[in-house]
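Give me structure tokens for this 81-residue protein.
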Amino acid sequence: MPMDAAEIEARITAAFPDAKVLMVDMAGDGDHWAARVTSTAFAGKSRIQQHKMIYAAIGTDMGGELHALALQTFVPETSGD
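Here you go.
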């Protein structure tokens, strides 16, 4: 059974409480997802490190219940105040 968007988002926000997560069902099948994740935890990390952090948050279901996940990761912009 595929992993739904709410479960993916819950796992990401459990690992990164400040995360803003936007989920998109890429194929309409509930099995191929895209996630746009913004978190301060990504500051100073490479894109590869950021993506590995997300995969670790999802756990062993990545590649099983969750067949595919396209990621975009961002660090929140800070105001110059």
